Write a sequence for this structure.
């Protein structure tokens, strides 16, 4: 996962770089629109975190340029503007989400992940985490392009985990994904299915890990 931060405040940009790198994988920083445009022309990014007020103009003016890229990066706007009209203007221009300053780190990271997940689904319906690809249309799974067979219930659990990658997938949500209303669920059934799924992915050299969180559920980590 690669993020471009476009922010001219040195202290904030340094904090954003560290926070987003820790949460999403890697973040680059530029402080103006010209440098941002140059960066996206030579390097594909999954997400652009874009300030509204920049030395060479309004961040909104970059969005139409980003929309021409293939694949198009997600755009998460940051701004001190809290006027609903300004928020609507940014969203209408093509921003995927909008976070007013000041913001909490946990909210920023969650919104960034949500934007990326939505784009992953939009791109031909394929969800990607690490070297795992989940085709939501074909209901198929592959590791670095190699298809791997996954039974129906494990497939449902895998999709629920992939859609929540990097976040806690609560036991209740996983059970709802894998079982019908009338199914009788044994106390250890979910853990048994997850255990088999973890072994299946491990045997296929999958880079992602499914980590148990005691009393809560599981989390998929790209590793």
């Amino acid at each position: 996962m690669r993020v471009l931060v476009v922010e001219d405040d040195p202290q904030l940009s340094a904090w954003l770089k560290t926070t987003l790198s820790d949460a999403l994988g890697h973040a680059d920083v530029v402080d103006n629109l010209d440098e941002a445009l140059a960066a996206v022309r030579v390097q594909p990014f999954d997400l652009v975190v874009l300030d509204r007020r920049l030395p060479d103009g309004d961040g909104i003016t970059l969005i139409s340029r980003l929309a021409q890229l293939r694949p198009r990066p997600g755009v998460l706007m940051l701004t001190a503007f809290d006027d609903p009209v300004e928020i609507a203007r940014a969203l209408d221009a093509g921003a995927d989400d909008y976070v007013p300053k000041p913001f909490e780190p946990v909210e920023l990271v969650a919104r960034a992940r949500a934007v990326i997940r939505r784009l992953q689904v939009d791109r031909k319906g394929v969800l990607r985490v690490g070297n795992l690809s989940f085709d939501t249309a074909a209901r198929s799974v592959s590791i670095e392009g190699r298809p791997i067979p996954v039974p129906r219930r494990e497939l449902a659990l895998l999709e629920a985990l992939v859609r929540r990658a990097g976040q806690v997938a609560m036991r209740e949500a996983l059970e709802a994904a894998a079982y019908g209303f009338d199914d009788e669920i044994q106390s250890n059934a979910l853990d048994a299915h997850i255990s088999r799924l973890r072994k299946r992915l491990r045997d296929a050299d999958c880079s992602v890990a499914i980590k148990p969180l005691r009393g809560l559920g599981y989390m998929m980590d790209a590793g």
The radius of gyration is 19 Å.
